[in-house]
Design brief:
The chain has 368 residues and is α/β, with parallel strands linked by helices. It has 13 helices and ten strands. The longest helix is centred in the C-terminal third of the chain and has 26 residues. InterPro entries: Glyco_trans_2-like, Nucleotide-diphossugar_trans.
Amino acid sequence: MLEYLFIAFIAIFCIQFFYYIPFFGTFSFSKIKPIKKLFNQPISVIICAKNEGENLKTNLPYFLKQNYPNFEIVLINDCSYDNTLEIMEQFKKDAPINIKIVDVAANEQFWGSKKYALTLGIKAASNDYLIFSDADCKPVSNSWIQEMANNFSNKSIILGYGSYQKIKNSFLNKIIRFETLLTAIQYFSYAKIGIPYMGVGRNLAYTKSTFFNVNGFVNHMHLKSGDDDLFINEVATKNNISTCYTAVSFTESVAKTSFKEWIQQKRRHVSTATHYKLKHKILLGLFYSSQILFWLFAITLLSFQFNWKIVVLLIIFRQLFLYLSIGFSAKKLNETNLILLTPFYELFLISIQLFIFIKNLISKPTHW
């Protein structure tokens, strides 16, 4: 049995090497190619908010200060019961650019559906080129629109990076940022090799025609989540997608500050993955299962001291290519303070993901 386990361990090692070096390496070791021609077509920035009055006060000025020749902001009030609408109206009154407000009334058929609210906002947008973010996000530079829009020159979908604000001496903050980094490595890499599978709504762009060509969110409107990843999973192809990860193109938001809230958020995100295309589910499942099995098999073999020298050597090699892949990616995405403890963050995250997987099997997440 140990011989078979050892052979399986070597196979798992090879799978992990394939993912981290040639696969993720398409992003990790790639160079950012500057876009020579600036895009200058009118842009609509779409921000959906539900009870986000204070976040709008803080973050909306960063959107208004964008250095782009022609853009509007579409603010969607998604049935808020705080002062969100009043704050939107005040910004519209004082703003130097055009702000449209879409006030979504309660609808029994689409109760609490962000997708319904987003659909109304997209319909209200004046322009075909759309860039999406959230009320709890802000662009990290005044060139955010320009950097994202430049990719519209030859593509209709653009994946950006939504970072989280760094909180000093917070272990949870580092785990959340590490998970966000690893997710970004995956969706950028998948897009680069021609099998895009998701994007994040904190920093995402596509054309209005792309949205309406597939009747928007109609195929998954019944699901509470998925306005970003499920939509991209449905419409993105190797021919219509581009990636944007220049440092000035990021958005930044404040991460959850309690493990309970973060786990609830991750349970919701993981639940949408069951609706991905089969090829994506297989590739993602193989990566996560190989992570878990690598350590389970390694610990078992070491506990019996079976070929322990080879096992230790393969663990060391794996840590080296893990550092290479994560390290180069972290530098690209301004997450360099996560590099040193990468193996520890990875092991902790594997444990959390296993817990979430089991939890979701027992009961579906109902809190949105």
